[in-house]
Amino acid sequence: MPLFERTFDTRTGLRFLSVREWKEAHPGGKAIAYFPVYAPVELIHAGGMLPAGLSGAGDRLDIQHADARFGSFICSIVKTTLEMGLTGHLEPFDGFLFSTICDSARNLCFVMKRNFPGMYVDFLHLPHNPSSPAAAQFLAEEYRRILSELERVGHCKVHEDAIRSSIALYNRSRALIRKLYTLRAQNPERVPTSELYQLIRVGNFLPVEEHITQLEQALAQFHSCTARRRDSIRIVVEGSFCEQPPLPLLRLLEEAGCYIVDDDFVIGQSWFESDVPTDGDPVLALASSYLDRSVYSSVRHDFRKPRWDGLVDKVRRSRADAVLFLIAKFCEPAYFDYVPHKQELERAGIPHLQLEFEEKSFTFDRLRTEIETFVESLVFD
Ligand code: SF4
After folding, report:
1. Most informative mutation of 38, 102, 297 for ligand 1 (most atoms within 8 A of CB)
2. Residue 155: CATH number of its domain
3. What is the pLDDT of residue 6?
4. To test the ligand 1 pocket, which listed residue (55, 70, 74, 75) has its Cβ within 8 A of the most ligand atoms?
5. Count of structural domains, the chain
């Protein structure tokens, strides 16, 4: 069995076991779920609450109620999240946080508000123009508003020192993930993506302290792994920043001869490229970091750093041979960016392939053929 499979299954299942365990160990403690892609988890953690990243229901839930609230052209994660709510699966949570990633997520927030009137459901307005001199102050004020709501829900007062301590913890977690990604890019045979993905994704539901321990142990294990390098192509996977691809699809990529050397899976777990400062005003530090330290993403607009340049940099940095656009069905931000990304890759002479998935997919015969053909075209070029 792969290293992390048992933990992944038990912690990320529909019962949210790790969230329930945490609440049993912390009587009266509150768990706040956030919808992808990014949330200022430090503010939740500093209030003594458990932040948990939602990531859809995969193929474990049939849609029976959510279809009545959303059109058929909406991505799966929006529908399965609502379905989980309408069928009582989100019962361990005491609040939900959404942000401005796309129209579907925005609508989900307000559908949830309407369907769960007694629940804390909030919408975080992230700035769309980071070059504006007012952007940092605007976001800091938005974070302070969220903070006062969290204090109300958690019956607590969140002090600046607690936020600084939480920032330090999450800095540690993000630094470990960066190290794991660097190790994988250097030695992809030692760090199978199908295992790394589970390790990072399980962090959505674990207390950060426990996840840091898992990341440290995994880093040591991957370092000492002696797997032999296969004759595979090196690819960057782009476009799976919100709805997550099924694990068997990642295994299929590896079996078909791909080493994934960089990706944007569960990107909220490693949102900052460098540490958030722990001195000064911690709320302002988080806001300024969102503007100046965030990774590029199709759900964050920053014309100071075009996302297509970011993708080419990523390919060069990871010495990838090609890019695979792995895009969730009906994901507007990913499809909007596909065109400029593709144009930039073609200018740079970087091969690419685009595939579509749904979190609930379980057969991949057509995708297998496309991937194998793509790999062969590169190997025998
Ligand atoms: S998968 Fe895409 S369209 Fe769906 S909620 Fe996420 S960002 Fe929005």
Report:
1. 102
2. 3.40.50.11890
3. 44
4. 75
5. 1
Tell me the best of 37, 73, 99, 101 to mutate to test the pocket of ligand 1, counting ligand atoms within 8 Å of each CB and taking the most. 101
Q: Give domain status of residue 320, yes or no.
A: no
State in Å: Cα 113 to ligand 1 middle: 19
Q: Would you state the structure tokens that stand for residue 132, as one six-digit string?
A: 């504006």
- Is the Cβ–Cβ distance between 36 and 269 less than 8 Å? no
Question: Rounded to an integer, what distance in angstroms lies between the CA atom of residue 358 and that of residue 331?
Answer: 10
Residue with tokens 């068997």: 248
Whole-number Å distance, alpha carbon 242 to ligand 1 midpoint, is 6
Residue whose CA is at the smallest distance from ligand 1 atom 6? 242
Domain that holds residue 34: 13-161
Q: Is 328 within a domain?
A: no
Residue 99 alpha carbon to ligand 1 centre in Å: 11
Question: Contact 212/176 with Cβ under 8 angstroms?
Answer: yes
For the stretch 330-342, pLDDT in tens is 999 999 999 999 9
Ligand 1 geometric centre to CA of 184 (Å): 27
CA dihedral 37, 193, 172, 56 (to 10 degrees): 30
- CA 228–ligand 1 middle distance (angstroms): 37
Residue 23 lies in a domain: yes
DSSP 380: T
In a domain, 246, yes or no: no
What is the pLDDT averaged over residues 215-229? 94
Separation of CA 127 from chain center: 19
Q: What is the largest CA-CA distance in the chain?
A: 63
Is the pLDDT at 169 greater than 70, yes or no? yes
The pLDDT tens digits of the residues spanning 5-23 come to: 545 554 557 889 999 999 9
The finding on whether 75 has its CB within 6 A of some atom of ligand 1 is yes
